[in-house]
């Protein structure tokens, strides 16, 4: 089978590897001209890691991942530890460690695995046309490519989604801006093996360890969409947002090299929908379920898509259209649930309802870790990779 994948991000490349392993001819097209992913890093929870293990990348992914043994919440104003606990129950109950990873490192690994000859950069899709037995994609260059199947893994502003749905759907602003990047590990911010999060005022500052003795940092600031920002201002918005916060936060801000690793991203999502395929064209990843990062499941959900798509094509034999319907049926409810879980989490943590957020802060001061672990596992329980279920 000839396969065209639009988008060479985490979802597109992982789907490409899955289908290559089944013997299909796969070509990926992306409008980017080089590997410069949006966002510095991502959380790979056990469901996402298991897909990468299944793709044959177990050792490589483990080498990219930071060792994250504990989790702690800290009062953003005083620096007082509100709670601290081990993440080992997540590993024990799923059979797999979690790995924060630098996005560029994971992206490079996946692209190398697909193979440079099968990835075509600087190719922006402008049109899709179907016949009974094949699909033709047109690019801005005027070039065309034809295949038996087209997978739209072209992200939050997906042109493939417009084709599948027959209309453009509007994204929904999640109410906050995320600033993120990579800095050297500094114990004054948090231990090198800990996910440390400072919280106050509906804002948060968080660090996770990744390979290379680095912290992935992300800072969330509730604010209106569309505020002007000049990259020449660097971290000035963070200085303003977190003025007077704890010394660990100030150390983090001092450690940011805005020229080397600093991103500002307004957070948007898309209302869940359940039509993912049209003819021989199907959606995958953010194009199908653009999700806010509040539960850390965006990349994992895309990896689950690749897993299910691979299984469907490996185990069914009634043709492309039937396989795509089976994939759609298996994935839309689960993906929609994660979108809505992330929205609910954002409301709790970002002060959209101050009373709810204050109650959450009060709960953190009494937290043993049990409730947080339950929430993390709750995001994984219904994953298609959870063979045998979770332990009680």
Automatic annotation (TrEMBL):
Q: Which residues form a coiled coil?
A: none
Question: Which range is the signal sequence, renumbered to this chain?
Answer: none
Look up the record and name the pathway of this protein: Purine metabolism; urate degradation
Q: Which GO terms describe its molecular function?
A: FAD binding; FAD-dependent urate hydroxylase activity; urate oxidase activity
Alphabetically ordered keywords of this record = FAD, Flavoprotein, Monooxygenase, NAD, Oxidoreductase, Purine metabolism
Q: Which GO terms describe its biological process?
A: purine nucleobase metabolic process; urate catabolic process
Q: Which Gene3D superfamilies match?
A: FAD/NAD(P)-binding domain
Give the FAD-binding domain ranges.
2-340
Q: Which family does it belong to?
A: Belongs to the FAD-dependent urate hydroxylase family.
What is the protein named? FAD-dependent urate hydroxylase
Q: Name its species.
A: Microbacterium caowuchunii
């Amino acid at each position: 089978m000839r396969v065209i994948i639009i988008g060479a991000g985490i979802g597109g490349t992982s789907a490409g590897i899955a289908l290559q392993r089944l013997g299909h001819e796969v070509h990926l097209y992306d409008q980017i001209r080089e590997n410069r992913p949006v966002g510095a890093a991502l959380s790979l929870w056990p469901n996402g890691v298991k897909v990468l293990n299944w793709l044959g990348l177990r050792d490589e992914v483990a080498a990219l991942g930071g060792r994250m043994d504990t989790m702690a919440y800290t009062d953003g104003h005083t620096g007082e530890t509100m709670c601290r606990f081990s993440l080992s129950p997540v590993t024990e109950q799923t059979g797999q460690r979690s790995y924060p990873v630098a996005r560029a490192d994971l992206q490079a690994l996946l692209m190398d695995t697909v193979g440079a000859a099968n990835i075509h950069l600087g190719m922006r899709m402008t049109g899709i046309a179907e016949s009974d037995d094949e699909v033709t994609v047109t690019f801005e260059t005027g070039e065309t490519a034809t295949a038996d199947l087209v997978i739209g893994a072209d992200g939050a502003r997906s042109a493939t989604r417009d084709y599948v749905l027959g209309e453009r759907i509007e994204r929904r602003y999640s109410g906050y801006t995320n600033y993120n990047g990579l800095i050297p590990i500094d114990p004054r911010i948090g231990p090198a093996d800990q996910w440390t999060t400072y919280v106050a005022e509906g804002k948060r500052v968080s660090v996770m360890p990744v390979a290379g003795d680095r912290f992935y940092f992300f800072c969330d600031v509730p604010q209106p969409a569309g505020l002007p920002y000049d990259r020449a201002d660097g971290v000035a918005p963070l200085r303003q947002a977190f003025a007077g916060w704890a010394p660990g936060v100030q150390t983090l801000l001092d450690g940011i090299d805005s020229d080397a690793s600093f991103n500002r991203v307004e957070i948007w999502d898309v209302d869940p929908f359940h039509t993912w395929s049209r003819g021989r064209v199907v959606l995958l990843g953010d194009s199908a379920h653009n999700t806010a990062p509040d539960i850390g499941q965006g990349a994992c959900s895309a990896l689950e898509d690749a897993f299910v798509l691979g299984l469907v094509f490996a185990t069914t034999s009634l043709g492309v259209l039937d396989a795509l319907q089976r994939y759609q049926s298996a994935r839309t409810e689960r993906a929609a649930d994660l979108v809505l879980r992330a929205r609910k989490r954002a409301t709790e943590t970002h002060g959209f309802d101050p009373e709810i957020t204050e109650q959450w802060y009060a709960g953190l001061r009494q937290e043993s870790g049990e409730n947080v672990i339950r929430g993390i596992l709750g995001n994984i329980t219904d994953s298609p990779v959870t063979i045998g279920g979770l332990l009680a």
